[in-house]
């Protein structure tokens, strides 16, 4: 049985989106990495008596994708990639948590473009702090690598010198802050 630090109280913790980042990195033309992030997400962390009793759910609005390039953002939001009109959300629902040395593997169902696949997110608990406003916060970092093709994100272009424009491998990076439930 995995126990939680005493400073992590049971109950529903909510994502502090303004102090969190949900991003990803994908190799472009085989020579550089392009980064993007989602600006609109909600999530809850249901903390149980142990880690195995805890659960995470998250919803990301695909239209909030931002890579810092308006033309690329339009393409990624379009039918070739996220198709935000037809698939406005990406969701994650955890199934279980397991210890992995000093980190934890958060295993759950990731749904992108209507396709659900099990993923394992290697997470690191960054601690708990009370902010100047009296809110108790917990920080978590996470990372996983997915195949975008597994989720129906198959658009690509062949390069003249060989290879493709967008790699299949996508690294998802999470820097999350959760706020504890209000004291009763």
From TrEMBL:
Organism domain of life: Bacteria
Domain Lipid/polyisoprenoid-binding YceI-like, chain residue ranges per copy: 12-179
SMART domains, per database record: YceI
Record InterPro entries: Lipid/polyisoprenoid-bd_YceI, TTHA0802/YceI-like_sf
Pfam (any one): YceI
UniProt record similarity statement: Belongs to the UPF0312 family.
Designated name of the protein: Lipid/polyisoprenoid-binding YceI-like domain-containing protein
Organism in which the protein naturally occurs: Paenarthrobacter aurescens (Arthrobacter aurescens)
